[in-house]
Design goal:
It contains six helices and eleven strands. 34% of the residues lie in helices and 28% in strands. It has one domain: Double Stranded RNA Binding Domain.
Length: 250
Amino acid sequence: MEAEEEFDMKRMMLFVVMAGIMSGCATYIPPGAKADLQLFGPPDIQAGFAAKPTNPFPASLAIVRVQAPAYTNYYLQQRGGSYGSGRYSVIMAKEAGEDLQLERLTKLQEIAGLVSINRILLPERLEGDREIRAAASRLRADLIFLYTFDTAFFDRDVAKPLTVITLGLSPTRKISVSTTCSALLIDTRTGYVYSAYEVTERAETFSTSWGSRDSADETRRKNEQEAFKKLIDEFVATWPKVLERHRTRS
């Protein structure tokens, strides 16, 4: 009896493996890394104290998403939207529902409007904050809202992020996704950092729910959408304090 059960178990395992082989063992590659936001702040303590706010309220905001050099993900591979070489890249595509959340900022006191920076305004080589600030100045944007996503997938039994995920092979395998969304609010004229923000969103799912790379990537984008919403929640909640602090300095 035990031999028959063992044979059935081996046969089931063989079936699962063969099914994966026949389907081409589809895999999903998680997205690239976040941008290092330290590139966009003052380089040292002295420069930090030297940078001054211009307090240009009511202010227009330039919205910019940045990621690591040569960043890519499944969505961008299909549609494009990443630009630049050097120490970071700029993501032109709005793939995390940003427009809906950013509309909330236009209703805040002392926000005059939002603009987006496109590749026409940027050099190919991106090294730090000056390239972004120069592009924002051409649009007459007073402040820059700079944000980045750090998204990683984990097996529940493994601490290290997964670099490749095989789709649909184990019905009991749980995959968790974690997204940290970080942002800076920067003075276009001086590089002064008015405020910094960071939130994290986590979700868990069974790998078998991903029948394709599209469905796997939908999990990533949904998690990033939730993280970005939480980031804007924090911006909205703290904006009155930012105004109060810098009006006092005026």
